[in-house]
């Protein structure tokens, strides 16, 4: 059973009807086949219509869709010989971040990914994609490894935020994130970050201060969750849709603001409807972004990356 | 034309005299509720003489207390676009900005100055919690980048007093991008071989803690300052547990190895001067008469 979002109700009803017709009757019957085809056309039109003008809050729902492809799907679809490495060498292994070397289109790369999990067991295992300091320290270790061995870095970001817990604070969540950003900016190798679902605040930027930041068409990226922003500024979590609107969390707005570099198109109706196609699209976008960086000297890469981030917020764009 | 003349118009602000407050002014300590005579509180740098509670200080006070003879040169900070997202919650961001400007007389939540600290060259950035909770937007990023460039140019140490609730939500992802931006500022100072010292004051949280505030070569905190990444309420909602006594306080961070020392405000200037000397920071030029 497909999981439908509230605003997808009309499409859900049409698709249920199509399914019913297909099951109930002899599919060879001409007028039934015709009706199915008409309904299918209608469903597609509706989907196109809906997804062509999603509100920031609707995009938030799509970005959090339980069936949306996760970091693991990106790795499975894009990376061969992936060899996950574990641990921060100080305290623990954090499964919220999956990282290690592998090959992208035949060439060795370093992968750093935040995994949310896709069912109850894996969600628990990956702590719902909320890393602890150990996760960020492992990521930093991988960035440094990549630098030493000349591996381009591909990061995949999908998190509602770094884990807010007593243990995480006690072990220096803030410092771990700060050092993560520091390491990203110092990396002497090409670095492509992709916001695949949710780019939640400091927990995201810790592995996303990259040469090129890609973002899926319906992903969101923000300084605080819409609910969190609504709770603080409106003193009412129910104002999350307004907060999502006001904070400019969509790929389209962030591209305009110069915060991200490129938008990766999703299949009609969102990445969750055709995960393989979505992953393939991202593969193409990464290859395109990576090609010109491969020939750049480490110093030039770093200088250009710095220049890009130093300019952010300096001039009015909106 | 160097960067200094291009971007930083020095504005000499030597503050030797202080405006007099009426003699009969009293303050109440928020910690022990005791009454403190105004002049006594000023002399003690806003530390309660009864219980030792460190009250919050303004950016201007930080600069005055830090520089030798309370003498420093403030720099004008480059302007940033105001309200880039045209943000409005219950109130317009532009109105919040103008309210804070009226209240504090500052452009944003930060001041930058240079001068002599314990006889050594130093650039000091001080954040001010009164201005929208010391939140970090593009102006904060601009301030730290300017301070770092000035420190590199002058071969001075960079000293930062933090006081912030975190990112400025009204600037959306632009405020988030100040985390890498301020980190670059820290890298510039580090690459120049100059020390970067952070003094964490109450409170320091969120994206500020998770970027430049935790990247100091030396990390000092004021007693009992609240320092953390996530807010107490968010943590309690997530784990559904009461937080331990003293959680996220300066002493807690010291115990967990996150900072180098907890230093009472009265000892801070001497500590800074000593550290700058030990770390080979060049001597400051004698003050012009
Ligand atoms: Zn007191």
UniProtKB/TrEMBL annotation, chain A:
TM helices/strands, residue ranges: none
GO BP term, example: fatty acid biosynthetic process
The CoA carboxyltransferase C-terminal domain, residue ranges: 39-292
Annotated compartments: Cytoplasm
Catalytic activities: N(6)-carboxybiotinyl-L-lysyl-[protein] + acetyl-CoA = N(6)-biotinyl-L-lysyl-[protein] + malonyl-CoA
GO molecular function ontology, one term from the record: acetyl-CoA carboxylase activity
Pathway: Lipid metabolism; malonyl-CoA biosynthesis; malonyl-CoA from acetyl-CoA: step 1/1
Catalytic activity, EC: 2.1.3.15
Location (main, coarse): cytoplasm
GO CC annotations on file: acetyl-CoA carboxylase complex
Keyword vocabulary terms for this entry: ATP-binding, Cytoplasm, Fatty acid biosynthesis, Fatty acid metabolism, Lipid biosynthesis, Lipid metabolism, Nucleotide-binding, Transferase
InterPro entries given in the database record: Acetyl_CoA_COase_a_su, ClpP/crotonase-like_dom_sf, COA_CT_C
PANTHER family, per database record: ACETYL-COENZYME A CARBOXYLASE CARBOXYL TRANSFERASE SUBUNIT ALPHA, ACETYL-COENZYME A CARBOXYLASE CARBOXYL TRANSFERASE SUBUNIT ALPHA, CHLOROPLASTIC
Family label: Belongs to the AccA family.
Subunit organization: Acetyl-CoA carboxylase is a heterohexamer composed of biotin carboxyl carrier protein (AccB), biotin carboxylase (AccC) and two subunits each of ACCase subunit alpha (AccA) and ACCase subunit beta (AccD).
Function recorded in the entry: Component of the acetyl coenzyme A carboxylase (ACC) complex. First, biotin carboxylase catalyzes the carboxylation of biotin on its carrier protein (BCCP) and then the CO(2) group is transferred by the carboxyltransferase to acetyl-CoA to form malonyl-CoA.
Identification of the protein by name: Acetyl-coenzyme A carboxylase carboxyl transferase subunit alpha
Organism: Acidiphilium rubrum
From TrEMBL, chain B:
Known function: Component of the acetyl coenzyme A carboxylase (ACC) complex. Biotin carboxylase (BC) catalyzes the carboxylation of biotin on its carrier protein (BCCP) and then the CO(2) group is transferred by the transcarboxylase to acetyl-CoA to form malonyl-CoA.
Family of the protein in this entry: Belongs to the AccD/PCCB family.
Record gene name: accD
Stretches annotated zinc finger (C4-type): 29-51
Pathway membership, UniProt: Lipid metabolism; malonyl-CoA biosynthesis; malonyl-CoA from acetyl-CoA: step 1/1
Record protein name field: Acetyl-coenzyme A carboxylase carboxyl transferase subunit beta
Oligomeric form and interacting partners: Acetyl-CoA carboxylase is a heterohexamer composed of biotin carboxyl carrier protein (AccB), biotin carboxylase (AccC) and two subunits each of ACCase subunit alpha (AccA) and ACCase subunit beta (AccD).
Catalysed reactions, semicolon-separated: N(6)-carboxybiotinyl-L-lysyl-[protein] + acetyl-CoA = N(6)-biotinyl-L-lysyl-[protein] + malonyl-CoA
Principal location listed in the UniProt entry: cytoplasm
Cross-referenced HAMAP family: AcetylCoA_CT_beta
Enzyme class, UniProt record, top EC level: transferase
Boundaries of every CoA carboxyltransferase N-terminal domain copy: 25-289
Annotated GO MF terms: acetyl-CoA carboxylase activity; ATP binding; carboxyl- or carbamoyltransferase activity; zinc ion binding
Alphabetized InterPro entries for the sequence: AcCoA_carboxyl_beta, Acetyl_CoA_COase_Trfase_b_su, ClpP/crotonase-like_dom_sf, COA_CT_N, Znf-ACC
Xref: Pfam families: Carboxyl_trans, Zn_ribbon_ACC
Domain of life: Bacteria
Cofactor binding note of this UniProt entry: Binds 1 zinc ion per subunit.
Binding positions (Zn(2+)): 29, 32, 48, 51
EC code: 2.1.3.15
Extent of the signal sequence: none
Plastid keyword on record: no
A GO cellular-component term linked to this record: acetate CoA-transferase complex
